[in-house]
Structure prediction request, 215 residues.
Amino acid sequence: MGLEPETSASALPQPGAVLDMTQVPAAQGAMCALLTPAIKAKLREMAGGQVLEIRVNDPTAREDIASWCRLSGHELLAGIEDSPQLLRMFVRKKQG
Amino acid sequence: MATLLVHCTHGREDPERATLAFIVGNVAASADQDVVVLLTIDGVWLATHGYADEIHKEGFPALSEVVQSFRANGGQIWACGTCAKPRGIGEDQLIDGAKIVTAANVVERLVGGATTLDF
Prediction:
């Protein structure tokens, strides 16, 4: 299965919340151990249909979030690489 | 939905295996999958009060935090009864959400199509 296409930020819905994982110290563990549970926790606070922007600086996060969205049923809208140190992923929370 | 059965046989003597089982389980639970961490042999200690608090492998999140998140995401913790009894572990010593199970409970899940992953 392919990844989401690159999309311009202006074409995206306004995020209802932002999850910034760029400041997580490496000593706290591999990003894959922390990222998707953190997304889940953030989405729990949001309403169905709202969009969460996730900011990461680990390139493996693109595949990680895509796979997690396929599993969980949340919609991956886009991924935007602003710089090698900043990837922004946009996920729409599923209804219900 | 088929169950994911993540099997762990280790406690403090191998903090990396102990933690990784719950990391994988937690990622699955966070994706709304039906997931059980099955603890056998020395892994059953992980289901007891306070035991995981001292396990923090360098480069990994603290195990107690991962277990807490796993539970919050709906993950189940099964402790092998055959392994718990000779170690003096009873239901009253288990953390919230953990339970002692029998071999038949495990076999039933396996026959029902559970996928396993071992640590």
User: Anything to note?
Assistant: The two ends of chain B are 23 Å apart (CA to CA). Residues 87 and 119 of chain B are 20 Å apart (CA to CA). DSSP finds four helices and five strands in chain B.
